[in-house]
């Protein structure tokens, strides 16, 4: 695996920011790291990257113990912190040359141009950082994190403050990374996590409350679904309550009903049969699947 965290803890005085957490992330995975504000996400990321020292536990990055050889571990990591630190008076290409030099790369010019193309900065590379929009500043931060070809990429709120078009562009960059890298990223935009990740880790009050493949997590945490049906005619609520495997029926109005069930397919078939038997016309029939937001609220409330 590329990241292995074992029994990790961090205290700030009397406050336990991270409480004995453990997880592993393998090469090729894009894992979403979620949690409410103050849950311990950024603290955990800073410990993995070696910017904070853990009070307890071990962190291995590509087999290197961060506590024993932090310089070697950092050489394997590309990190974009939540507060993207840039030098406002430097030009984009100049800044990336500087970062490449810090990493002691031999092919500085070649690697800089490669990263500029990778994150879509070609038309902005001649500008000063202060002249860039928030979206392009984020691209510069990602380029700086990737310029030394790290094995592990850690992104803290990479799409924060971006418009929808910029979010999609950054999403595509992150997706492309998973081919040969390990990606751990946090975001408050849960739709982004659903679009990019197969697996999520949710932390709450310093402890991990969920760690699973997204589809399994949504099914296990929120096993029920909602079937919404709309009839042309007026329908009595009691008629729908008699359908087998219906847990709850909510009447939106006498034509539209929301049905909670653990067997959505069976209920849909029963609704169609009910309509035929009672000479009713179904105008609309759909199943609302549980979103990551539903799952997040369930495990952190």
UniProtKB/TrEMBL annotation:
Protein name per its UniProtKB record: Gliding motility-associated ABC transporter ATP-binding subunit GldA
Task: List the keywords (alphabetical).
Answer: ATP-binding, Nucleotide-binding, Transport
Q: Which Pfam families match?
A: ABC_tran
What PROSITE patterns would the database entry show?
ABC_TRANSPORTER_2
Q: Which CDD domains match?
A: ABC_DR_subfamily_A
To which protein family does this belong? Answer: Belongs to the ABC transporter superfamily.
Q: Which Gene3D superfamilies match?
A: P-loop containing nucleotide triphosphate hydrolases
Question: A Gene Ontology molecular-function term?
Answer: ATP binding
Task: Show where the ABC transporter domain sits.
Answer: 3-230
